[in-house]
Amino acid sequence: MSRKWITPIIYTLITLAIFYVGVQMFTNTSSFLSSIIMMIGFAALIYGAIYFFFLRHRTSAPTNGKEMKKYKQAVKQSKQKYKPTNTVKAVKTKDSTSSKNPSPFNSKKNKRKNSPNLRVIQGNKNSKKDRASF
């Protein structure tokens, strides 16, 4: 019941505001434009303050939570997997082993160490049709 008398008041205020904006636009254009720019600036400042103090923490909370923890753990595992082993020793031994021919056994061992872990899935090989019987 109380809403029936509020809606005409709101429509009247909106109509008066539109009328006032039209009158200001045609009679005093420079002050109208400056007041519009000031209103936009104040609205941007208020929105920025609300975002900075209230909304920024809400939107960044999920990324700082479980997702960020999982991401950091994955990065750590990746660095451990692909980190170069003994970089200082490798440089020193490279100079001393450059005069010698490296054995093929060592290169195969290094290739196997860095190769990805692959698994062979064996299917049913006996189910092939014999083409000679056709």
Automatic annotation (TrEMBL):
Domain of life where this protein originates: Bacteria
InterPro entries associated with the record: SA1362/YqhP-like
Residue numbers spanned by region Disordered: 63-134
Compositional bias segments (type: Low complexity): 98-107
Keywords assigned by UniProt, alphabetized: Membrane, Transmembrane, Transmembrane helix
Stretches with biased composition (Basic residues): 69-82
Chain ranges passing through the membrane: 9-26, 32-54
Name assigned to this protein: SA1362 family protein
Organism: Halobacillus seohaensis
The organism's taxonomic lineage, starting at the top: Bacteria, Bacillati, Bacillota, Bacilli, Bacillales
